[in-house]
Amino acid sequence: MELSIGKPILELNERLAADNRALLDEHRVYVLDVLASPGAGKTSTILATIERLRERYRIAVIEGDIASDVDSQKIKAQGIPAVQINTGGACHLESAMIQRALAALDLETLDLIIIENVGNLVCPTDFYLGENAKIMILSIPEGDDKPLKYPGIFQASRAIILNKVDTAAVFDFDTAAFYESVERLNPTAPIFPISATTGQGVDDWVAWLTAQIEKEYGCASS
Amino acid sequence: MHEFSLMQSVLSTVEESAHQAGAERVTVIRLTIGEMSEVIQDAMEFAFEVLAPETSARDAELAFTWVTPRSRCRACGHEFTHDRYHWSCPACESLATELVAGKELYIDAIEVEFPD
Predict the structure, then answer these.
(1) Residue span of the structural domain in which B10 resides
(2) Which residue of A101, A103, A117, B60 has the lowest C-beta tally within 10 Å?
(3) Which of B38, B65, B103 to probe the A interface (max A CBs under 10 A)?
(4) CB-based contact B109 A126, cutoff 8 Å
(5) Is ipTM strictly over 0.90?
C-alpha cells in the first residue's frame, strides 16, 4: 500500500531556520552566512570586515568547524563575542546548531552576526539557517575554474568575494574567465576582489554589506 | 557528504509515517530530487545502507525521480528547461532568469506492508 508523504527532506531544518529568522527579525539582527573552501580566507576576511564595521554595528561571530576553537579564539582576541560550533565531522552547519548558538548570544546587544560555515564548496549550499544572505569567498590560488566545478555555491551566494588578489601574479588565474563564468551562473551577484590581509578592496565589500543591512533594518541603533 | 544528514531526515520521517499508519515494513521510499541541488544518488544510497538496518525500512528500495531544472525569463517571460550551467534565456539571451524548478529535496511517498 502506498502512503503519500509529500514533505521536504529538510523539513525540520527549514522549520528551525524559520524560527531562527523570526527571532532575529524580532531583535533586528542581520545574519551573514559565509561559505568557502578551507584556507580561502574566511576568518581573515571576517576579521577585516569587523575592523571596518565595529564602530558602526555591534557584531558577533558564530564559528563552524569540524573540530578546534582556533578561529573563535582569533575573533575573541579582537574583543568580539564568538560562539564555536564543533560539528564533529559533519561537513556543514544546520539550523539546530545555529539555534543553540543564538541562545548563547545576547541578541539585544547585537546588530550583525557573521556565521563562518564549515570549509566546503558543496554541502552548506543546501541548508538554510535563517540567515539574511549567503556569500562566498573564492581565493586566487584555488583557480578560476571553480565556478564551472561547483556551480551550486556560486548560484546560492548573494555576493562573491575574490580573495588574495595580491597573489594574482604568482598564480595562473584568468580573471576575465572567472568573471564570465560567475556572470553566467549568477548575473546579479557582485564580485569584490580583495586582499583581506593587505586591506585592498575591503572597503568596497564592506560598503555593499552595509547597504544590505540598512536595506533590511535601516540605520544601526548604536 | 551531507547526504548522511539528508538520509537521517528521510528515515526519521519515513519511520514516523509508517508507525502512525500501523505498517510493519517499508518496501519503497520515493524521493524527488532537483538536479540543481547538491545531492549525489550514490552518496544517498551509501548513507541508506549504513543507516537503514536499524529501521523498519531496512529492506526498502530507494526510488529517485530527478527534476530537470526549469527557469523563467524575467525579460521576456519565456519558460525553458536547461542543464546546471546554462540558464540564460534561449529566446532572448537575457541572463535575468529565475529558477522555478530544480532545487527539490522531497519525500513523495512510501510503500508499506501491514502485519498479517
Answers:
(1) 3-113
(2) A103
(3) B38
(4) no
(5) no
